[in-house]
Amino acid sequence: MRAAASSVAERISLAEDTLAEAGAEVLRLPHGRVIRQAAFPHVYDANLVRRPRLRTDGLDEALEELAAPLRAIGARHLQITTDGGDVPPTLAHELRRRGFSTDRLVAMTLDGPVLLGRTPGVRIRRVPTEASWDAFAYAMDRMNREEAWYAPAVSREIVGSLRRKAEVGALTLFVAERDGRFVGTVGLARDRRAASIVSVGTLPEARRQGIGTTMVVDMIDRARRPQHHGDPSAEPAELVYLIARADDTPKDLYRRIGFHVELGFDVWLRLPR
Predict the structure, then answer these.
(1) What CA–CA distance (Å, rounded) separates 152 from 164?
(2) Which of its termini does the chain have fewer beta carbons within 10 Å around, N or C?
(3) Higher pLDDT, residue 271 or 232
(4) Within a domain: 169
């Protein structure tokens, strides 16, 4: 029987806390939890606010409190993640008035069997023991070039942030290889008995060929099987989930694999000014 939705939502939120805080400095302030990685100031997901406590009264002062420690390390954006609960309409209006845009995300969980199989010839290589960091950086950079914000330095920062989280043990990263070429990236994060699949991406020329499906199915298998004895964080996961944009097509692939939407939440972003 599935756990109550509120319990699952809280477990997901706590697991997202753990991943965001891994390899980062955490400042617990009156209006929210500021997480920052000073070495990677331009990475939105590495420098953000979680557990916000905002009201329309005193909103400008609260936003300045949250922005100041990020600005101090060179981050000029302000990202606020609300997976603990939605922002009330009145507050949402005030955030938009102050230059914030919102992106609706969904947390999708897998309770039952995997409904799709792997594509033959695709191998998943663990970084750095089976593939190099250069291979991971290459694949990430190829995918990042499609983004409007792309700059080589920012792409390197993204890899650096993920590498730091991997080095402190919160995340394991992989590349997909086919015919001797690196064609995708994926990661698996663990928090107690919860596992999240992250950084799923396929190079442009390798899409719609089953590589994304193979990567996700491989991560599910790794999450559900016993790992290192004596390490509670590596026991078989009771909860397997991933985060997807509500209006993007990858969520449709995840549904075909067997995931369903557990909850939706917003990320509020004020771009660099």
Answers:
(1) 18
(2) N
(3) 271
(4) yes
- Long-range contacts from 67-70, C-beta under 8 angstroms, 24+ separation: 69/27, 69/29, 69/34, 69/36, 70/34, 70/36, 70/41
* Token pair recorded at residue 225: 């099987």
36 and 127 in a single domain? The answer is no
| Pair of tokens at residue 230 | 């004596």
pLDDT band at 6 (very low <50, low <70, confident <90, very high): low
Query: What Å distances lie between residue 24 and 37, 164, 250, CA to CA?
Result: 5, 9, 28
The CA distance from 192 to 77, in Å, is: 31
DSSP letter at 58 equals T
Query: In the chain, pLDDT over 70 holds for what percent of residues?
Result: 95
Domain with 225, as residue range(s), is: 122-264
Spatial separation of the C-alpha atoms in residues 192 and 238, rounded to whole Å: 9
Give the 3-state secondary structure of 20-52. Answer: HHCCCEEEEECCEEEEECCCCCCCHHHCEEECC
Tokens of 55: 């009201």
pTM: 0.93
Q: Give domain status of residue 257, yes or no.
A: yes
Neighbouring residues of 7: CB distance < 8 A, sequence distance ≥ 6 = none
Rounded to the nearest 10°, the torsion over CA 112, 116, 120, 123 is -50
Q: Element (H or E) spanning 165, and its range?
A: helix 152-167
Give the separation between CA 32 and CA 66, rounded to whole angstroms: 7
Q: How many CB atoms lie within 10 A of CB 124?
A: 21
